Amino acid sequence: MDISFDSTQPKRILHVLGTLNRGGAETMVMNLYRNIDREKIQFDFAIHSTEKCDFTEEILSLGGKIYSIPRFTGKNFLQYKNAWEKYFVQHPEHKIVHGHMRSTASIYLPIAKKFGIKTIAHSHSTSNGFGISAAVKNIMQYPIRYSSNYLFACSQKAGEWLFGKYQFKKSNSHIIKNAIESDKYKFNITKREKLRKELGIEGKFVIGHVGRFCHPKNHEYLIEIFECIHKLDNNSLLLLIGEGELFDKIKEKVNKRRMSDAVMFLGNRSDVSDLLQCMDTFVFPSKFEGLGISVIEAQASGLPCIISHNIPIEAHITNLVKILALDQKPYEWAESILKAKDNSSRIDMSEEIEKSGYNINSTAKWLEKFYCDFSPI
Questions:
Q1: Domain check: are 191 and 109 in the same one?
Q2: Helix, strand, coil % (nearest 5) of the chain?
Q3: What would the pLDDT profile of 300-343 be if each residue is shown by its tens digit?
Q4: CATH code at 50?
Q5: Residue 91 sits in which domain range?
């Protein structure tokens, strides 16, 4: 097996993910990929899906390669393990594996290390949720803190949750801020008026949310909050961006409450930075988050943000953020949101975002140096 290193070629980093759709971890990796020096560093992806994803075409256009690994079901442990063994035999070009999929990282990272590959485990959350599935994941992911060369996390809370406080204090631990291209999010009145006209929401008080339709994002509670708002202000409108396993359930709830004319489901969008211009207030009542990158993007666009107390402190960058508890009644959230209604002047917060370390260029440069400093095998 030839594992020689050609210094004239970019170092190829393998990122391990579930899919390549517009989730938080995937979006973060893509932001870095677009801004890293691809003459020095190239990203490849091992995903647990055979379907074409949101970022598939862009990755291929940037020079990345995508490989499919069988989805782990619990019953196919040997098949899953053998798939990774075979993968690393066939792909000696990967000198670093950057694992974002934590549920099976205790399987694929030790295999990578067996092949002499450097490993990174990256935490993007603070909970697995509840139930038997969550309990199994908690058990499976415990060894990651000991089997990885480096421990990355999007926030202190996310790092301590996955790796433990003691391990995340060690010198091999790093917080990697989910940086954004802040210039893209600067408030633009022309874009706002154009898009509001295209969407047919001129003159509306628009409450916005960006996030996957899944348990942690708490869409059911968001709908209850909006129902209270709409009773007090029938000119209000809820704009929902994202897809997910609970999409149909939430849409059904909206229909049952006879609010279908006041709630817009836009699905997954590539123009989130523009759609934030259309909103008047951003609401984010998550049950748990590793960071809450959408909150940072909303602040960059100058939006008042009403968020749950579960959002890590690293996302509280500007004075646009107001924190509420999830044990408060939906009408209490509604009252706070309506107080933010008079927001005729949007302030440019991009400089504050950059000063807080969420500048994509500086983060990409740091990661580029980190990858390059690894000695070739």
A1: no
A2: 40, 15, 40
A3: 999 999 999 999 999 999 999 999 999 999 999 999 999 888 65
A4: 3.40.50.2000
A5: 11-179+359-373
